[in-house]
Amino acid sequence: MPTPQQLKDAFKRKYKKEVTLEPEQRVPVFMDVFDEFVKDCGMQNNWRDATYEKFATIKKYLQGFDSELTLDALDETRLNDYVNYLHDTKNLRNSTTGKQIDFLKWFLRWSKRKGYPTNPAFDTFKPKLKTTRKKVIFLTMEELNRLREYPIPARKKYLERVRDVFLFCCFTGLRYSDVFNLKRSDVKAGHIEVTTLKTADSLLIELNNHSKAILDKYKDIPFERDKTLPVIRNQRMNTYLKELGELCGIDEPVGETYYKGGERIDVVTPKYALLGSHVGRRTFICNALSLGIPAQVVMKWTGHSDYTAMKPYIDIADDIKAGAMDKFNRL
């Protein structure tokens, strides 16, 4: 609850009148506290660059919403105003808005623990955001083989290395960040040993003929920092994968439904336009499960710690197997 003096000062600031506060009267500057939170949590949790960039975006949204925001001003009404700002002004999907609110609540919990005058409304704030489960994009066995066997034209040879790296993810389940950091010393006889960048899991992943062939192709080619494969920056790789997918005719229409505020939006996109490096990992999981490899074995390779994260993939594998059984009916 703001003191009468704080209310008076806020009123004066709003109407551009100068006010000089005594040190004990000063209200903590929201963005200064936010910067402290990022520095503190970043060091404690060993944030990667991508996480710092994520919170830089959050800060930018908050500044755009109210450049004079204070911690004690975020009551339920103001929090709802922020939700509306995210989907009306920033044009975010409900699923993204929900994540933004979760990150904001993380910051507010931290500020409360640190003793800053934080409005307690965030503790019970749960905006009603209609969402749908995000569709898992992966390549079927037929699409994977089509991409693997496609003869890349001479004028598009730059796509060859991109394809090899992507296929390595499809046949090992590695994330982009881990294949980017894969060193020759991580490659052992018949397997690779990786400590994942995202979760710090220590994984031992056996090599199959496909992943081994890709490693053999580049074993005598030196790369910087003793890397194993010619991995380019993720953004460029994702652009090239879309180009490669289009060339290969991976153009199955993919329907998606999402919400912005109360508006339902249905879109249909060719699959190649949805390709990115992480599709490789999803392709590995879905196809491994559909081949009948037990989920607990796949989890050992991917580093998943519980079945909750695996359930969407298991559901897809069950659908694939049901469709495969139907083929007997055509005999």
Descriptive notes:
The protein has helices at 4-14, 30-45, 49-65, 76-88, 94-113, 141-149, 158-172, 176-180, 209-218, 234-247, 278-290, 295-302, 307-325; strands at 187-188, 191-195, 202-206, 253-260, 263-270. It has 331 residues and is mainly α. The chain has two domains: 4-124, DNA polymerase, domain 1 (Orthogonal Bundle), CATH 1.10.150; 141-330, hpI Integrase, Chain A, CATH 1.10.443. The strands form two sheets. Strands 1-2-3 form a three-stranded antiparallel beta sheet. Helix 2 runs antiparallel to helix 3 (49-65), helix 7 (158-172) runs antiparallel to helix 9 (209-218) and helix 7 packs across helix 10 (234-247). It is globular, with a radius of gyration of 25 Å. The relative contact order is 0.09. Residues 16-27 have low confidence and may be disordered.
Structural class: mainly alpha
CATH architecture of the largest domain: Orthogonal Bundle
User: For the report, how would you describe the main beta sheet?
Assistant: 3 strands, antiparallel
Helix content bin: 40-55%
Global shape: globular
Distance between the termini: 75 Å
Query: Strands across the major sheet, in which order?
Result: 1-2-3
- The total domain count is 2
Q: Low-confidence stretches at least 5 residues in length (pLDDT < 50)?
A: 16-27
Strand count: 5
Top CATH class of the largest domain: Mainly Alpha
**Count of DSSP H/I helices:** 13
The ordered H/E elements are HHHHHHHHEEEHHEEHHH
CATH third-level topology of the largest domain = hpI Integrase, Chain A
What's the pLDDT, averaged over the residues?
Answer: 89
